Amino acid sequence: MVQTFAQPRTPKYMLHEQMNPAPKMLGVVLVLVAMLALSVFFLKRFPVPVTMPLSQQTLTLSSGQQVQLILYANSRMNNHILESHATVLASALMQCRKVPWQQVYLSISHEKQMLNISMKGEENGHFKLRNLKASDVERHMGFFSQQWLAGVNLCE
Questions:
Q1: Range of 105's domain?
Q2: Total domain count, the chain
Q3: 45 lies in a domain?
Q4: Could you list the residue ranges that cross the membrane (predicted)?
Q5: How high is the mean pLDDT of the chain?
Q6: 120-151 pLDDT, tens digit each
Q7: What angle do CA 147, 150, 151 make, to 5 degrees?
Q8: What pLDDT is attached to residue 149?
Q9: Which long-range contacts does 72-75 make (Cβ < 8 Å, 24+ apart)?
Q10: Measured between alpha carbons, how far is 126 from 124 in angstroms, rounded to an integer?
Q11: CA dihedral 101, 105, 106, 110 (to 10 degrees)
């Protein structure tokens, strides 16, 4: 028995030689442009709502330093609780000689269980943020003492 081995025949045209990459690239570009157009359309048509502060007040400390106290509320139900906490915090801050923050933000959770105090300031040209969360604030309303403010670095 004699075996003959035939050389494999190469196809007349290779697959990569037959396809022109320009239409494929054009299709990708068209899909990207369509996605961008849809994104712009939906951003313009359905803008993201901006939450405005409930109230804003500027506190002037005995040293002459000014601190903004800004309140945010996500529902009308918590406004009176938030405002009462803000009054207590404002009077405690007014007793401070110096505060390392330019802005203090106050908000309360929807279920009235968590008080959020966010502070924003600048020190030596560096931006700094601090966030404090106090739980079960309904029962412990008077925790804004000078000792507590100094302990959490809200007061110097």
A1: 55-151
A2: 1
A3: no
A4: 25-43
A5: 79
A6: 998 888 898 989 888 766 655 566 766 777 77
A7: 80
A8: 74
A9: 72/105, 72/106, 72/107, 73/107, 73/108, 74/107, 74/110, 75/110
A10: 5
A11: -150
